[in-house]
Protein 1
Amino acid sequence: MRIIIDAMGGDNAPGEIVKGAVRARRELGVDITLVGREAEVRQCLAAENCEDIEVVNATEVITMEDDPSTATRRKKDASMTVALNLLRDGKGDAMVSAGSTGALLTGATLIVKRIRGIRRAALAPVLPAGEHGVLLIDCGANVECSSEYLLQFAYMGSFYAKTVMGAENPRVGLVNVGTEDTKGGAMQHETFALLKKAGEEGRINFVGNIEGSDVFGGKVEVAVCDGFTGNVLLKGCEGVIKFMMHALKDVFYKSTKNKLAALALKKDFTLMKDTLDVNKVGGTALLGISKPVCKAHGSSNAESLFATVRQAKHVVDSNIIGQIKENIDYMRIGSSGDAEA
Amino acid sequence: MRIIIDAMGGDNAPGEIVKGAVRARRELGVDITLVGREAEVRQCLAAENCEDIEVVNATEVITMEDDPSTATRRKKDASMTVALNLLRDGKGDAMVSAGSTGALLTGATLIVKRIRGIRRAALAPVLPAGEHGVLLIDCGANVECSSEYLLQFAYMGSFYAKTVMGAENPRVGLVNVGTEDTKGGAMQHETFALLKKAGEEGRINFVGNIEGSDVFGGKVEVAVCDGFTGNVLLKGCEGVIKFMMHALKDVFYKSTKNKLAALALKKDFTLMKDTLDVNKVGGTALLGISKPVCKAHGSSNAESLFATVRQAKHVVDSNIIGQIKENIDYMRIGSSGDAEA
């Protein structure tokens, strides 16, 4: 299996990206193609004593200043663009980038294309909760959603939870303002009916509406949401974690007595903190794209990049894309034709 | 000043409600009217050695099983309905209830009415962040919002932050999926333009779009949001806090060494926990109603009820309703007439 990596994406590229890629090759047994400014990338490889990794030269870099909706079209020789082209052309099995989320999403849609019949690709990170974690789908790819998009997110999320997260019969919940069937607006009502029907047909394990507090409560493995709400929820939760970590730090440093006590707790506290650390849990799969594309966190270090390559390997191994293709007829409503970009 | 209290609302009524009311009278110097089943309420008052508080009898109770949209119309003699009628009739200056949020919102709108020109009342809790806290408006009163609603939320939130929270020049942010001006869907774009204009005219201090993570980041005093997203965000944050508290507890109880260390931290840790405790910070004002109505948490104990009465007193003292009335012309767009229910 070969993983194509955008070596220039993210805040710590190319150094940390190359470091994570080298570790992934050693520990996961995958072949790696690094895409980026060849001289820079080779220098990083030399620093890691690993000079036999394939490098494909790309002279440009997509930055946070580039308009995401046009970045890969304007910068044809950017590392991200070239990496996506390699994936499309079958030169690897999956692509990983820590670059601009918006540019990656648009680029993957335009270059690699969506799975036939899938209306929109979704960003679906796995958050810590329960035994398997919870997949929050969508988290910002689509700020305005139709009920059909959400139906597709539910199916794709369910396949992902089963094959990649290892949940036997993943519970799917619709994020809403209450658990009663009638909660929410028109979009939630329509989606509820579609998910309920899919549940009754035994295609997904729909458990009904869930509240924001249930996302972290271990009540479901898949939380289905429009991208606007999902994005605000995800970032809000990140903000709360940060806020609490600061508050805890203040407690730990308040006095000598507290400092000594904190020292005794340090090991276990760090283990707990790690479960909440984006750098440890891997990246976000772009579900709905016709080949595996995974987004690593923009602030990825080597460890985070490694975790995202491991995730990409799981996505390839799981054949989730095959599963989506096989079930696409159940995932569409109406007959408004194909949605390929 | 007289505060009318629904003595039968919430999980711990009437015992804890009466206890909190007695404390409020003693410590805040306000007059109290308790509304509920007179015999039960008087028994609670006797237990508190405080039998000279005014009690108005109401034979029914609105429960979580009642349809919120019709509860106060169907149960004319419910404690909540009678309390709202007393407020409308000028028998008190503010009303407090720990009962069903939906029923209170509908009841307040139907009985007390909205301020003339205000399209929708909003639920606006204050969350811990920065120096003054942050008002998240709306948190679930309105699952589907227009840009005009959000403009009104921004004004009302700004007045509240200034007069009740004590923020000199409260910063108002629009919750969105990114900080760039162009982020979000059509509703956010329209709202952004309205808030920007209000900011340029010097009527509010609009600082632009904010992300979910900024809500707890101390970046603004007022976070403006549709009620669907606000509700999911608020409950999601509550879920994360609960999740982290559990994880911390696991760390604290893991070993004898950890238990001893946790014991040393206990006092300061409890203080920190209190800042995140809904029972300590008071309730949620229903902004847009023509007289002060405050919702205490459904699981309110005496302390939480007391904090909500204190908040109601601040709302009366601040004359925020007068401020909203004075500025109503700036808070409306178009000329689609009055929005009274």
Protein 2
Amino acid sequence: MNKNNYCVIMAGGVGSRFWPFSRNHKPKQFLDFFGTGRSLLQMTIDRFRPIVPIENILIVTNVLYRDQVLEQIPDLKAEQVLCEPARRNTAPCIAYAAARIQAMEAIKQKGERRKARIVVAPSDHLILQEETFRQTIQQGFDFIDKNDALLTLGMKPTRPETGYGYIQMGDEAKGDEARGKGICKVKAFTEKPNLELAKVFLESGDFLWNSGIFIWSLDSILNAFHAYLPEMANKFAEGENVMGTPEEDAFIQTMFPTCPNISIDYGVMEKAQNVYVIPSDFGWSDLGTWGSLYELSDKDENENVTLHSDATYYDSHGNIVTLPKGHLAVVQGLEDCIVAESDGVLLICKRDAEQQIRQFFMDAEVKFEGKFS
Amino acid sequence: MNKNNYCVIMAGGVGSRFWPFSRNHKPKQFLDFFGTGRSLLQMTIDRFRPIVPIENILIVTNVLYRDQVLEQIPDLKAEQVLCEPARRNTAPCIAYAAARIQAMEAIKQKGERRKARIVVAPSDHLILQEETFRQTIQQGFDFIDKNDALLTLGMKPTRPETGYGYIQMGDEAKGDEARGKGICKVKAFTEKPNLELAKVFLESGDFLWNSGIFIWSLDSILNAFHAYLPEMANKFAEGENVMGTPEEDAFIQTMFPTCPNISIDYGVMEKAQNVYVIPSDFGWSDLGTWGSLYELSDKDENENVTLHSDATYYDSHGNIVTLPKGHLAVVQGLEDCIVAESDGVLLICKRDAEQQIRQFFMDAEVKFEGKFS
């Protein structure tokens, strides 16, 4: 296994869109989402183990979840869990991990800089075809070995999804390492489209779903931060000597909260000129919504989805039901609803109202003083 | 307190209409229905304590529930719980209790027969104005002291309820003991009417709801059984010498299952000529249906009812929600539904589909081999 391969897992989310299934003390990435016995985080780590040495896997998370990470992934060392003292967005998260990898490389190589390759991935996505996924990552590593590129994975769309951002493909990349893999320059990133526009995107064949999975060399991403987020990059550079030492924690405690709340897409990818995309197809979902979970789950003859528990349906259609394991739901006269129970909270709402779930969560947080959060 | 006052509580029902709230192992009468800390059975007993000596209270139930009765009413002696070895209807239940009371009276009076007065009541009804209830019972006792009468309590209807049977009032009873109390001969018992007929009943002022609460003397009910259900009456008479002795149990085990499955209304009340009704008004519900529970519960501004648990409603109207204590329901986009969770079973159904709940229960019983029954 290539000792230069690094993996950065972003695991700081709170997943309130899946409340009450996800909770403040146990967000989505830590849940056994499908009742398989493995959490999404565990599945994510397992997916990388064959291609990234375990000591090169870094988890960036909120300090609140540090112990849960170490409990779920017992062969991680404590220092592999990077703790954000404040909730920022993906750019500071990735910059922190890059600074740490820089320090790790400096120690390993004793001054002789080799090409560290980094894959950055969310901790709470679903990937069905793991071998294809790893082949894609490997192709990405091969590409960035030869090119100073910020490479993103774009998913071939299968439906006019309005819940994802899209990437418009531009010219094909040149060179053996790109040939036959469809790697392209990125022409544009787009926000989540409305349904009409999503249909146009789908039909054009020029658009891919933005997966939030990135591949780049350490040098490329450090250069990009200095070019597009120089203030933040300088803050991290000031701590270069303490990264990976006992002083790192104090430095991060003070510095990190001063970082801007900005995403890597907005802060870097949309501005850089060397952004590429590798069209991918390995059964991916960001599991960002009940809708996406509903879409990819097995349905009965009335399009009802049941997860974890048993359920019997009468005159009911298009529902997604998840109760604690061993429980039974008997549902009559219900159409297109989400029914989710976890830890003393039962949510019943229309599937098309799921964007309100965050609000339900916040209302309950205030009303019940965090008891059900 | 009058030592001749007896009370027979019928507590053998399974209450599957309230599944999953009521369960085979814990039917409705044993549940703390309103979260007050007292079960319906306990509330029923408490209601009679001021007018019936505790040693004169008999509970007739299925042998399965014997221990639960004794646990919930610790000052009952074991022999006060009459166990039906098979599920019959109210006529055999009442005949069994009458036979036992006959034996108790024979012992107490050493041959000198006094006038034992019996009130028979279900164990799972709600009565809000308990003092008025007891005054009504006392008036009934006064009436049957002077008259060989089978007296039933008829509730003054407040709405065109289609879930109850009705009693049509006939001529007023004569005598001081009836005067001013409105006691009447019963002209007819009617089945549950449709809505149109129920409206006619309500407007006429001649009809009362059939409560299933009866008052009679021991002699009157024994005579009535001999007149209208002679075969069954003879079976009980054959055991006269063993009632109240250690041999009673063996006798009942053999004999009781041979009794017909027949209600007291159909077997006696609709046939006898000396049937009277006392118009009553003490805030009564048979709690026979979710609908009746919904009707009598406090509602929020959107006509939602929440029992036991917390609930927050969005765009929702006319629901009744009951979860285990300490749980929270968040409900959006739901109209006129029952949401009930208990012991690992969640039921969601339309309020107007509640007559199907028994079927849901039976389906689940078969499908899950009694696991959720």
Protein 3
Amino acid sequence: MLRTRLLTAAGALPLLIFLIGYAPEWSFSGTVLVLTGIGLWEYFSLTRAQCTLSPVIGKLWGMLVAFSMVSGDMRLIGTALSLGFMLIFILSLRDRYPARGIQTTSLFMLGVVYIGFLFPHVLWIHRGPEGAEWVFFILLVAMLGDTGGYVVGRAWGKRKLLPHISPGKTIEGGVGSICGNGVAALIAWQYLLPNRPASELVVLALLMGLLAQLGDLCESALKRACGAKDSGRFFPGHGGVLDRIDSLLFPIAFIYYYNTLWN
Amino acid sequence: MLRTRLLTAAGALPLLIFLIGYAPEWSFSGTVLVLTGIGLWEYFSLTRAQCTLSPVIGKLWGMLVAFSMVSGDMRLIGTALSLGFMLIFILSLRDRYPARGIQTTSLFMLGVVYIGFLFPHVLWIHRGPEGAEWVFFILLVAMLGDTGGYVVGRAWGKRKLLPHISPGKTIEGGVGSICGNGVAALIAWQYLLPNRPASELVVLALLMGLLAQLGDLCESALKRACGAKDSGRFFPGHGGVLDRIDSLLFPIAFIYYYNTLWN
């Protein structure tokens, strides 16, 4: 299991570094759109039993929002969010049971905001000043956090964190994850964003790490609520795209608004 | 009942005309914020039994989004939507039952987008070119549509429109409502927006009327889903604010994006 993981990482890392740091913008945007599409696919497959509208409508709406995010035009984003919301709400009127119609509308809204709206924020970070560096920083925090959590949880993990949502996670692992975040901040300070004060990067990394772990738990709660173990079924053994990006979604939104509002 | 309605209208209309057409911008914004606040209050009271987080959190989040809409700053709106969403999702992890936590998150999201995000779009219409005229046009379409639906439904109403959601509405009333919309378009062409082609105003009025009726049904579905008859309990006899603005929400969003994207 660990070996497969490491091999996958060794194969994917150079590609990721190339896409973020060196490839033309459109190829990064394209990759993000494809990942968003698969994430939406997984979300609407997961929640299929809870919703009475066709998942295809949800995927289309989510992709419409994602494309509007690529455009960066606030009028298009507002249109995609508002008109899609109205359309779903109206379509759900056909449900014989209003409670089920409302549940469908609200779960569609949740998925579209969670994946179609939050994830493409990474494009806006990437286009900003030192964009590639910030995206690398987010990935570094997530990867070293995961590694720290895995190693420490394996070696000393005893007390369960939130057993009703994610039985494998321990408090010790969570602490190891935070240590990994700290290391990521120091590496970022040395190699990625040297003109930023180390204290700022450490605080950001710790907050991102916290959001990553909580975001991971949110996705687990979503899967539990739908009675599934992995988000994706068409990548056997690897889990789904949603399982991979779940810990990135919250830090991405956080860093984008931090950078836009504070700087 | 009809008499009370007419008296209320006679009292409220001059105030409304003054606020939209002649009062300073801040008083119109303030009125919209107060109505949004009461609407959110009603929504989160309605859905209280379905959610396990305190309604206060939902109202605060909704008001935060509404205030960001008043500012018109896209960065603030994005922050209010994204960070609030993350916070609610994270708080709902405390629920013992993940399915209930997800339901809470999604219903909170629905209410905030439905009222806190959609309704304040009327401020953006009002600030645009011929803003007051467009707001009057929306109100006129809604009011004459309501009147046409009431009169025709009373006189000839037989076939039920969607009995599982709104038992009082008939297909004949719906047709009467559409006639009212058409009359509103002609009045708007004569007195409010004479530089627009009549055909455009008629098409817009008919689309708005359709959205108003469907939006009305959406709010009814919401109340049915929550087992309530009126949205508000603290305005005895009058229904709630949500019952009044439900038919305005969709036309407002529609007209704002129509004007922004087409003109």
